[in-house]
Amino acid sequence: MSNNLKRQKRERVRPGYLARHEERAAYLFLSPWLIGLLVFWIGPMVASIVVSMTDWYIISDPVWVGLANYKEMFTKDRQFVNSLLVTLKYTAMSLPIYLSGGLGLSLLLNLKLPGMNIFRTILFVPSVLSGVAVAILWVSLLNPDVGAVNYVLRELGVANPPRWLGSPTWAIPSMVIVGLCGVGGGAIIYLSGLQNIPPQLYEAAKVDGAGPWQRFRYVTWPMLTPTMLYVLLTSLIGAFQVFDVAYILGGTQGGVGGSLRFYLLYLWQQAFRNGRMGYASALAWVLVVMAAVIILVLFRTSSRWVYYETDPEKA
Amino acid sequence: MHMKTSTRANVFEIPKESQAVRKRKSILRRIPGWVVSYLALAGLSSFILLPIGWLLAAALKPDFVPIFTQPPEWWPTSYWHWENFVRVMTNETIPMARYIANTFTIVLGNMVGTVLSCSVVAYAFARLRFRGSSFLFNVLIITMLIPWQALMVPQFLMFFKFGWYGTYLPLIVPSFGGSPFFIFLIRQYMRTIPKELEDAARVDGLNYWQTFFYIILPLSLPAITVCLVFVFLGSWSDLLGPLLYLDTNSKFTVAIGLANMATRSGNSLWNLLMAGNLISIIPMVITYFLLQKQLIGGIASVGLKG
């Protein structure tokens, strides 16, 4: 008995010929990624820690400044604070709309009605369109004086429709409207989540006398929470990646009075307009830390509201 | 959980009405819901279709007719200048034909890089046993969550030192290192392929490479197709990459060419810009219609397994 255990142990420590063979093959298969990881991820990451502690204008030599870049960011740089606020405001405004809109749309598209495929096709089209194309179209539609949106609003009796991109207060709502046609993309994810809910659950609930609201509240909602977690995670991190649409709607300067200077746009400005590579690297590190915090907080709190079905076969 | 007990008795009651009457009644009761649903769907669809109609109308207008009219034209009615599409292709300020060719170069490079790297790496993660596999897989997941834009400054500095600024290399070469997202996607798919197939191949004397190439790769084509479509859509519409690395108009991609024209003040050729914009979405729309099922399945599976 003990001999047997010993042998097993030794086998695990020193893999046999076949296992070693397999391992060698595995690392060969992995090599493109491992090289890519080293060259395009780990190398730049380490380098950017160093760069973030320097003053480096692309044409001149870097000068070591220690933590001065970070200090400047948190104490003096009002544009940094502003870009954070813009990003935050956009998230706070768009997230509830996109989350509930995507969910509502998917519930609608999940109905078994004739012609539903046509609606699905139409509503999913924008999820493949580029941000640039959609934004160029909407810049024209949102023109405050002659644009189509304000024409419709005036026809509806709004005497002084918003100035949209021309006004600092309406710039972010404009972004939200432009993003709205992409709600279909979120709906696709929810829809597949909905279609993965076993129909027996609804039947059982019906037999138990649950009405439509109760069926939603006690069956659909808990079964969809894992999907919600995913969508929430990607849209929160996505807010720090907003670039294309803001660039087209607000131009290189980030909109009227910096109203569309999103975090990434500001990073880009600092690096490639002002040439401050060191400062931009510091901004990038703050971005990584914020993304990490978001991910950690979401996963830590997810156990309170995300429902994971225990697999009866495994249990 | 009161619903579980309250009305259970009702199930056993004998229905008083006949089946036909009940069915008719339930259909009648559903009609208002249907009307509301269809109205909502039609409203949402028009939110997407009307702007596209407006885009077409604007693209077909001659040079000196304003594209902004009151009321707006939601569909081309009076002007049908199809030659605008030809003009924008060869226009000097936005040479769309040139942009399209440039973009396809980058897209193709990325597709080749992704297939070559991601499928191979995914196989190792899906099937092979090696020390450090779970550690490396965690690294993969972490890199999937880090926004790549956080690394754009050091990457730029690196490529700049390589002398790659102003070329397509920085936009293509990284794809040969594999993208964590696509590796993950293909790996998930490969895990669903029955292991017996592989064992049989091994018994027949195929080595790991042959097993991968002749057995696993052909079977994974659906997942690889989805990845290729994502790569196509992603690099076709990428703005930030070309914005960082390309500096001359003759090398621009569709996205940056259009973006430049749209953000330049004093642009007078709105009709051509809109024609170019319309052309730029055609490849995406065609892809969407050809591969709708795979694409939607792909987006969906990403959400479920992520």
Describe the structure.
The complex is a heterodimer of chains A (about 325) and B (about 300). Chain A contains 14 helices and two strands, in the order ααββαααααααααααα. In chain A, strands 1-2 form a two-stranded antiparallel ribbon. In chain A, helix 4 crosses helix 9, helix 4 crosses helix 13 and helix 6 runs parallel beside helix 12. Chain A is globular, with a radius of gyration of 26 Å. Helices cover about 70% and strands about 0% of the residues of chain B. The interface between A and B is large, with 102 and 103 residues.
In short:
The complex is a heterodimer of chains A (315) and B (306). With 315 residues, chain A is mainly α.
Name a few traits of the molecule.
heterodimer; A: mainly alpha; two-stranded antiparallel ribbon; 2 strands; B: about 300 residues; mainly alpha; disordered N terminus
Number of strands of chain A: 2
Uncertain segments of chain A of ≥5 residues (pLDDT<50)? Answer: none
Overall pLDDT confidence of chain B:
86
How would you classify the helix and strand content of chain B by structural class? Answer: mainly alpha
- Radius of gyration of chain B over all CA atoms, rounded: 27 Å
- Rg estimate of chain A, integer Å: 26 Å
Beta fraction of chain A: under 5%
Q: Please give the order of strands in the largest beta sheet of chain A.
A: 1-2
Please write the string of helix (H) and strand (E) elements of chain B. HHHHHHHHHHHHHHH
| Strand tally of chain B | 0
Q: Average pLDDT across residues of chain A?
A: 87
CA-to-CA gap between the ends of chain B?
Answer: 31 Å
Main sheet summary of chain B: none
In percent terms, what proportion of residues of chain B is strand? Answer: under 5%
Distance between the termini of chain A: 31 Å
Major sheet characteristics of chain A = 2 strands, antiparallel
